[in-house]
Design a protein that fits this description.
The chain is of the alpha/beta class. Helix content is about 40%, strand content about 30%. It starts with a strand and ends with a helix. The structure holds adenosine-5'-diphosphate (ADP) and magnesium ion.
């Protein structure tokens, strides 16, 4: 059973220099309970794919065709109310830049509380309990302090843990992780990947995992789609794609990883 089914998705930007088509007719399905990887070089259209799923492409960008079925319902034709129900709740996203996800003028606790009550109004003491529970799930050691901290008081890794807590707080059916460790140093990156792996297993989450790094994809993903210049050039079981790549672009991408190792 597929939780998400993307069909012939196209995104276009009308720029002063002409029309750009950064997503050019892509298709993929994410099964319930699987971690589905999307890999490709910087600029190939990964983030725009994620933003399309949440219908967050802003002008001059627009989705010009396709459908995105979430539990069988097309997100691209939903009304605003159904969309609000999905964004940050049934589907939530962790961004590449932990800094950009939080508002600098509010505490971490306040922002996660808001994310919860926006979908589920409840008493303040009750929501605080839930926030604390998710900060602990994200293995934040000093959760009481972090609750009261402003974003700038946290290290990059801690901020990313807080964002993971926020993304999980509404028990999403689909979690989108857009290069969740790219902005972090290597040691922190390994710790956050461990954390994500554990949470995904424990909660049996369905995940779209975006990365430019085949090493991370190999560790995290059941299946993977390889994206190049707005098109998906190859997809399949991660082991198969890595062990026996077919497309020249996939082969080149894998060679570049080997060259670094
Ligand atoms: N506002 C915009 N106007 C024009 N082109 C854009 C805009 N935003 C993104 N793009 C183009 O879309 C392409 C895909 O971007 P993105 O999805 O962010 O790539 P990725 O996440 O794979 O690095 C890029 O080549 C970028 O230049
Ligand atoms: Mg990106």
């Amino acid at each position: 059973m597929d939780i998400l089914s993307v069909k012939d998705l196209r995104v276009q930007f009308d720029t002063p220099y002409g029309v750009v088509r950064p997503i050019d007719g892509i298709n993929f399905d994410i099964r319930k309970g699987e971690v589905f990887g999307l890999i490709g070089e910087s600029g190939c259209g990964k983030t725009l794919t994620a933003l399309s799923i949440l219908r967050l492409i802003s002008p001059p960008g627009k989705i010009t065709s396709g459908s995105i079925l979430f539990n069988g319902k097309d997100i691209l034709v939903m009304n605003e109310k159904s969309l609000r129900d999905i964004r940050g709740s049934k589907i939530s996203m962790v961004f590449q830049e932990p800094a950009s996800a939080f508002n600098p003028v509010f505490t971490i606790g306040y922002q996660i509380s808001e994310a919860i009550t926006a979908h589920n109004p409840m008493a303040a003491w009750k929501v605080k309990d839930i926030v604390m529970k998710f900060l602990r799930k994200a293995q934040i050691p000093d959760s009481h302090k972090v609750y009261a901290d402003y974003p700038h008081q946290l290290s990059g890794g801690m901020k990313q843990r807080a964002m993971i807590a926020m993304a999980l707080a509404n028990s999403p059916q689909l979690l989108i992780l857009d290069e969740p460790t790219t902005a972090l140093d290597v040691t922190t990156q390994a710790q956050i990947l461990e954390l994500l792996e554990e949470i995904i297993k424990r909660e049996n989450l369905s995940v779209l995992f975006i990365s430019h790094d085949f090493g991370i994809i190999a560790k995290m993903c059941d299946r993977v789609a390889v994206m190049n210049k707005g098109k998906i050039v190859e997809f399949g079981d991660t082991k198969m794609v890595i062990g026996r790549p077919k497309d020249p672009y996939t082969i080149a991408l894998l060679e570049s990883v080997k060259a670094l190792a």
